[in-house]
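Allow me, if you will, to draw on your knowledge of protein folds for a short while. I have a record of one protein: its chain in single-letter code and its fold written as discrete structure tokens. Could you please explain, in whatever detail you think fit, how the structure tokens follow from the sequence? The record follows directly beneath this note:
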Amino acid sequence: MTVEETQVAVAVAAEVVEVEEPVKECEKAVVEESESKPTTVEKSTSYKEESNYLSDLKEFEKKALVELKSKLEEAILGNNIFKKDEPKKVEEKVKAVADVEEKKEEKTEAAVKTTEETEAAVKAEETEAAVKKTEETEPAVKKAEETEAVVKAEETEAVVKAEETEAVVKAEETEAVVKTECAEKTEEGEKAPELAEKKEELAVPVCEEEAKPESSEVVDTDISLWGVPLFPAKGSEGTDVVLLKFLRAREFKVNEAFEMLKKTLQWRKESKIDSILVEEICSDLSSAAYLNGVDREGHPVCYNIFGVFDNEELYQKTFGNEEKRGQFLRWRVQLMEKSIQKLELRPGGATSLLQINDLKNSPGPIKKELRVATKQAVGLLQDNYPELVAKNIFINVPFWYYALNALLSPFLTQRTKSKFVVARPAKVTETLLKYIPAEEIPVQYGGFKRENDTEFFSSEDGSVSELTLKAGSTQTIEIDVAEVDNSTLVWDVSVLGWEVNYKEEFVPSDEGSYTIIVQKKKKIGATEGPIRNTFRSNEPGKVVLTIENTSSKKKRVLYRHKSNKCF
């Protein structure tokens, strides 16, 4: 159970249930007549990506974009995009300096201790002599008192000197007091040259050898994200597209969008995301998520199959320990990067994905490891790939999913709600058809797309038509066979929800010829997928597909056909 999953159901449950507006009596006859005629499946107009053209933006959106570009340019020119992390070699040298200074401090403390002991011995001897003289003569008392005062002064002077020595040693540990060390060189005598010599060996600046000013640093104006240059002065048409994604993710709050962008760039640098495409990661998960086709608007479609983790062996291999879960996260990020490679990050292009999340046979919320790992993956994608998913469609949603999501619906923003669609098992094909053409929907979901299809090679290779089959009625689909020599007729047909009687036959043009049964009449259940068949004839005629709707609900019928020449 993912965070995205737990945010979805109630917010979009209404999208699953189709509410038909009542048809006026005067229009009913026209509607019924049009339903019986086959038509070409048209694109849905309900699904549009937000525009990236500057002219289509609202005034406050334009202003936010200009402000973000200004902040970004200033940060790039000032080398303030990434954290100021010192190179590894410099860190090692600084550590070496710290070790040297620590040893020096230990030696200084030992010297101070020896000095204190010597001063104490001298004091004891002088005090003893003064007492002796005091006993010999009374006038000597005054002199003894003066001697004692001198001794105390010398002791105080020794302590002050030790404190000054300790302060100098501590000051040498940081570069901030380098100039102070230079000012005290005359008092330190031979210590300053020794210090300079040691620091020169460790490549640490001393006194005049200060760090180079920021103005001399090399400015990297080639910073890019997903292959798009971010430096506004380069004039790339994709820059605005990328920046708008971060602005929209933060409701056009410029400072928040800027910080989000900086964190994304820092994360990519630290995690080495730019080289992730060439890595071999979790090859066993190729069936868990994959790219397949495009939707009606040209967006790449990514399918996430949660049911594969019902296999205990694969589950443990993927989520068995923290290291394996880390590999799973990197694999998911790699898939996202592969998806972005198929986008057109420019105004007017397909700049986001369509996600299909299949929950059939999903392990559910009882699997803690899956829940935690997927939550982490969702967090990574939300934080570093904003507005790259145009729609998130959840299909084959089980009952427990709705109950669990009801608790989180009040916390969703309208933008988040608008991107989620939920479909029950009986509505999978119907829901997908709103966004994806039938020829791009895999056969397991009721569409016509088959792996390594040798018959229909592209979406233009046999357009898909649709007709409506009223309750209790029978419809026929006739496919002419004009070319007889060296040609084979092939067709696909699918009925949403099936529960119909179906048969196929060839009817010759010559009335004296016999009708050939291609497929005997049979009852097809609701779970049946699309049917494909072929026929090669030696005479002109037509293939007739007969569909009898015995249910009390109208049915949608999809079909396509073509003639393949044989050589």
In short: Confidence is low (pLDDT under 50) at residues 1-31, 42-46, 176-193, 198-215. Residues 403 and 437 are 31 Å apart (CA to CA). The two ends are 53 Å apart (CA to CA).
